[in-house]
Design a protein that fits this description.
About 75% of the residues lie in helices and about 0% in strands. The protein has 26 helices and two strands. Helix 3 runs antiparallel to helix 4.
């Protein structure tokens, strides 16, 4: 049983996979201020609930996210909350370090063959708990990075210095290898100067493909600082190629450089990070690295490596083809001439291939046509509510839209389209017709959801009612959450049965921190499809939305649901994400 299954289950019952709606603005600044005051009160209530959790790791994870949310309201209070989080975490880390140093051998009841769910086979219980603590550390650092890059990076570096045990330090270094790049990318998105400074510092410890993604982030935020970081990266590679972790770095760097140079040629674009001389230097270093390595993985990728190198160093590419006995792909003219000399057998193969390709292309064309038709349908529906048509023309347009939706393939697309149509009709002032259209959508949904797809469709329906009839949405969500409580409870029971080492379920609580510190962030910050619906419900009735979160039985899921509501109210950046999520759902649907 993987963490992705648990994450999916919790996402299913919390975010609802509801389609993003057009956010309903509050009536006035006074209403917005009142809503924020209620949200802060709600946040403090949630913090009290978190304090009653049994797992210290869970308390730290949730408290760090609450501190991040408080930052949108009161920076001073948020810093104080972070102070408590960091203090608790250091205490936890010191405890594990002491236990590991004191243990000369595992206790009799410590099964060294544990770690079934998350790896860690052959590790002691302290080591497995330490891995959870490292994931919690990631949660704290990422939540801090959203507001205070310096604090985030200093915490990330300083906290690891508390570890004296060599085994735990080795585990920490392993978990940090990829997380640091994600942290630096998060920092770069909010502050390019900080991303540049910390990026340069990270280069001293080694260079990997993740630095190229950091380069992209810094360059996108600030071209000059991106160029500076790119040159620092190239300088480090030239001075000590042994710092590079993997050969894929060179391939990715050359690919980035080529894309970057091409993009810089368009009018009004940013200057490129590298010129062609720089890329030739990279190709030369890449060539030397391939010639010196004995790693067998090179042979699996040598074709793509050579293709990249020979764009900037043709002679080096030719030498590699000789060494690795690879043939340069024939040009189309050569291929055509070669085919002309063999008419019989190759012609049959060509005909069969052509037939298969034609069938594939037809299927692909049909899918594209369907997608384009659906996009146009959605765009037309969006315009319907803002057009001033005479009643007879409006009624005809609505009837035609309902007919087109009926013929649309896929329940998910039908529910989404009907929900959007109902919302537009309500904007026109016809609430009865809007409810009638939503009944069409309701007939597509199982009123007693059992499997994940049933739940998906139910949540989508609730998202539609959030716009057309919020009272109905609240009723539907409440009953569905009550039903989902049984599913969550059953899932946790099964997880407890399998999780003999208490990696995922400890003392009856789901160890949220086990999921790399990313789970809370992705569920409360990257709300995607759910945020628009939550916003609509909050603006319709915050008290009811607040009460809805209490419908969840388990404390962990209840707190996560509350944090999602708080993120929508307090973090204004979620508004920009609503439109992107809406476009994605409307175009792709839910498979």
């Amino acid at each position: 049983m993987s963490y992705k299954l648990l994450a999916f289950t919790l996402l299913l019952v919390l975010t609802g996979f509801a389609p993003a709606q057009t956010p309903t603005p509050t009536d006035s600044g006074e209403d917005a201020a009142k809503l924020k005051t209620q949200a802060v009160e709600f946040l403090r209530e949630t913090a009290n609930e978190v304090s009653r959790l049994r797992s210290l790791e869970n308390r730290i994870s949730f408290d760090s996210e609450l501190a991040s949310l408080m930052w949108f309201h009161d920076e001073k209070e948020a810093k104080a909350m972070y102070g408590g989080v960091v203090s608790d975490f250091k205490q936890l880390l010191t405890q594990f370090d002491s236990e590991m140093n004191a243990a000369s051998m595992p206790s009799d009841d410590d099964d060294m063959e544990g770690g079934f769910l998350f790896g860690g086979r052959g590790q002691s219980r302290v080591q497995r708990k330490f891995r959870i603590a490292m994931a919690v550390r990631q949660q704290i650092a990422m939540s801090l990075a959203e507001h205070a890059p310096d604090l985030a990076y200093n915490f990330y570096v300083d906290s690891i210095n508390l570890i004296s045990n060599p085994e735990l330090r080795k585990d920490a270094d392993r978990s940090d290898r990829y997380f640091e790049s994600r942290l630096l990318q998060q920092i770069a998105e909010s502050d390019a100067a900080k991303g540049l400074a910390y990026g340069k510092d990270s280069i001293k410890r080694g260079i990997s493909s993740t630095h190229i993604e950091l380069l992209r982030k810094i360059y996108k935020k600030d071209a000059d600082k991106g160029i500076e970081f790119g040159q620092s990266l190239l300088s480090a590679v030239k001075s000590d190629p042994k710092k590079v972790d993997d050969l894929g770095f060179y391939s990715a760097l050359l690919t980035f450089g080529e894309e970057n140079v091409t993009g810089s040629k368009t009018a009004g674009s940013k200057p490129p990070v590298y010129d062609r001389n720089d890329l030739r230097d990279v190709a030369e270093i890449f060539y030397q690295a391939i010639m010196e390595t004995k790693d067998a993985i090179v042979r699996y990728n040598i074709g793509s490596f050579i293709s990249v190198i020979e764009k900037y160093a043709p002679a080096r590419g030719a030498q590699l083809r000789v060494k690795f006995k690879t043939v340069k792909p024939a040009s189309s003219s050569y291929a055509s001439g070669n085919m002309a000399t063999n008419v019989t057998a190759p012609r049959v193969i060509a005909d069969n291939t052509s037939s298969a390709m034609n069938e594939y292309e037809r299927a692909q064309k049909q899918r594209e046509d369907q997608e384009n038709a659906y996009k146009k349908q959605i765009e037309d529906l969006k315009k319907l509510g803002s057009t001033n048509l005479p009643k007879d023309q409006r009624d005809a347009a609505i009837a035609q839209a309902r007919k087109i939706i009926t013929d649309t393939k896929g329940k998910d697309k039908k529910i989404a389209a009907l929900s959007l149509l109902a919302a537009q009709v309500k904007k026109m002032g016809d609430k009865d017709l809007a409810n009638e259209i939503m009944l069409d959508a309701e007939r597509l949904v199982n009123p007693m959801p059992k499997n994940y797809q049933d739940y998906l469709f139910t949540w989508m329906l609730a998202g539609g009612y959030a716009e057309a009839d919020p009272d109905k949405a609240f009723m539907l969500l409440e009953s569905t959450i009550q039903r989902a409580n049984d599913t969550i409870s059953a899932f946790v029971k099964v997880a407890e049965f399998i999780d003999v080492q208490q990696e995922m379920i400890d003392d009856g609580e789901v160890q949220v921190g086990m999921f790399g510190g990313e789970m809370i962030r992705s569920m409360t910050s990257e709300l995607g499809m759910a945020s628009g619906t939550i916003r609509t419900l909050v603006n319709a009735d915050f008290t009811k939305t607040r009460a809805l979160t209490n419908t969840f039985d388990r404390t962990e899921t209840r707190v996560l649901a509350k944090m999602m509501v708080l993120r929508v109210v307090l973090d204004k950046k979620t508004k920009a994400k609503d439109a992107d999520a809406e476009k994605m759902l409307m175009i792709e649907g839910v498979d």
